[in-house]
Amino acid sequence: MAARPITPVAFVTGADPVKLGLVESLARPGANATGVTVFLQSLIAKRLELLHQLVPNAKQIADLTDLNYPGHAPPPIEAARLLGLELRTQSASTLAELDQAFAAFANDRLGGVLIAVLPFFISIPTRSRILSLAMKYGIPTQFGSRDQTEAGNVMSYGASLTIPPMLLARADEVIE
Predict the structure, then answer these.
(1) Model-level pTM greater than 0.85?
(2) CB-based contact 21:70 (threshold 8 Å)
(3) C-alpha pair distances (Å), 76 with each of 88, 148, 150, 174
(4) Phi first, then psi: what are they for 82, rounded to 5°?
(5) What gap in Å lies between CA 81 and CA 87, rounded to an integer?
(6) Fold entry, domain 42-156
(7) How high is the pLDDT of residue 160?
């Protein structure tokens, strides 16, 4: 946007576009950017509640996010406390880090994993790896979009979106 200030920019995000620096404000985006946000990350407390219902005896739940991504949501610490859960935030931005995270979750016997709604986690290679790791270690996962459960993961809760497969396959490339 800075390099070509007159070129129109359209975006779609599940994060806060103001926090990401895409627009000045929701009321007045400014400049040449416009887009759609569905604020998927604002549903994180409800997603945690649903995961807790799936594994009611779990005492620890993982919050898997990418702390390097500017649009990551803060962990739902208060929601976890109200549910009597210990929340362990783990960052991953590569498939190798994802492998390490799930091995640690299994070793620590965490009850489930709340997966952040971020580009890395919705890409086809990543969601396939998450499914494989979840099955390998027997750890339930909770996603923020329906396409993840259609791909075989345990559960999701979020806005009903149709994401073109081309974008899913390239989501991790788009942010680079």
Answers:
(1) no
(2) yes
(3) 10, 21, 25, 27
(4) -65, -30
(5) 8
(6) Rossmann fold (3.40.50)
(7) 64
